[in-house]
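In the previous lecture we treated proteins in isolation. Real proteins rarely work alone, and many bind small molecules. This record shows how such a complex is specified: first the sequence, then the SMILES for S-adenosylmethionine.
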Amino acid sequence: MKHPGTSSGGKPRTPRNPAKSTGTGRNFRNSRTGYAYRSKTRRDPARDVAFQALRRVDQDHAYANLVLPGLIERARLHRRDAAFATELVYGTLRLQGRYDAIIGLLSDRDIAALDPELVTVLRMGIHQILQMRVEDYAAVDTMVDLARDRLSAGPAGMVNAVLRKVTEHDLSYWLDAITSGLTGEKALSRAFSYPEWIVWALRDALVATGRDAGELPGLLHAQNRPAYVTLCARPGLISADELATAAETYLDADTRLGELSDCAVVLSGGDPRRLRAVERGLAGVEDEGSQLVAKVLAAAPVTGVERTWVDLCAGPGGKTALLAGLARSRDVSVIANEVSPHRAELVRDSTKAFTDQIVQVLQGDGRDFGGLHPGKADRVLVDAPCSGLGSLRRRPEARWNKSATDLKDLTALQQDLLRSALETVKPGGVVGYATCSPHLAETRQVVETTVKNRADLRVLDAPAVAREIIVNSEHDLGPGPYLQLWPDRDGTDAMFLALIQKKSPTEAPKQSETDLEIRQ
Ligand SMILES: C[S@@+](CC[C@H](N)C(=O)[O-])C[C@H]1O[C@@H](n2cnc3c(N)ncnc32)[C@H](O)[C@@H]1O
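The predicted 3D structure, ligand included, written as tokens:
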């Protein structure tokens, strides 16, 4: 099979593969992840930090993005080493399914019978050899040292033997080897390192949104690449241009403005927390797809004078803060609701640049909100808790922590939250139902089950609303009525948005308008 980003054929690899990617990709000036053999000392600090982080994720089910910064800080890694450790951790986690298949070919024991710490070292080594700009000898030697240091001499010998065999061939050879005899989704699952149920889910979602199943490998590849950090310049507080200038000046980063959201500033690198605008809440880290979801909801047609918007599942508050900026300019206030006390605090922090008159944060179960505040809001956002299959670029371990059975509870919760939102919105108002997952069970099926037989509701054409406000009006957002963004097509997380309007009382309900075709 052909795999994006690899050369064809299974030739023995040259000592240094110029096609190797750092994984950080697209032509920004200051990419600094190139990293060779750092020292001859036993414990290479960057690799040791990566090992510890990977063990915490494996053992304690920790989130890489939460444990890694602390480990980097404690080890006092410099910027280049920190970038190396980050790439090693994220890349190893994403591609561990592929690497486990290679280990399976090279080991005489089943991978489940191997010491998990040894498996971690092997995965790290294979990632450096096949994916990173690290010389083979450096990858092998440092991993042998790490195994000797963290494990013992026996496993170090196995690390040496396995990794040396890996260096004998290039990525293309190994992809052919691990997919030999497999076809279709099984082969894609192996090669691109996804659980098979996710491959099927992404395929079904692609096809349902009018795309070709042949685009699936490109999507899987895109979800394996790290996402650029994107900032949102909150409307009325700072402009995207001002924010970009600040990032270039203080982070020494290259920037580009968004193609979809006029608030978006994409960074080539740098720690955005160091920006005063971020510290003061004038801007925040937020994927362009998430920004677009909030902006499209704010742009949807509603009737009557607007007073209140509600964000039903607000934590940690990225979309609330963007909505607040837009609401302020229209003399509207925002109520942000969040069930988790900790995340409600995060919403307060995200919206600290706005007064209490603009944003009020409540802590409570969103499922009860509609019953408590019926007809309260002109616009309601339900950014529902979901499987997160659309943000795998940012959550490297997520694909391994979720299972298809998790979806049952999630979709029940999503339906309850959507029903509550529909109670909260006043006639003539609009509910935006969003997920950072393209899974059909969490997206259109939730919407279609909920609006079925409700003559008082209509589903609006979300891509049509989006087209009116996106920066590049030529950008193809696919057919409506739902907006489904894709990392490979749009460069965003795979966010979903449905806009549902509650008809105003003067409108005679027409049953045909809600007779959506439900796909089983
Ligand atoms: C996808 S996140 C929302 C992200 C947020 N809109 C943003 O842009 O920062 C979903 C949120 O829903 C919250 N949540 C889960 N169950 C909830 C419930 N029953 N009521 C309200 N919020 C809930 C989660 O704690 C989580 O913070």
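Summary for your notes: Residues 290, 313-319, 337-340, 343, 365-367, 383, 385, 436 surround S-adenosylmethionine (CB under 6 Å). Residues 45-177 form a domain with the N-utilizing Substance Protein B Homolog; Chain A fold (CATH 1.10.940.10).
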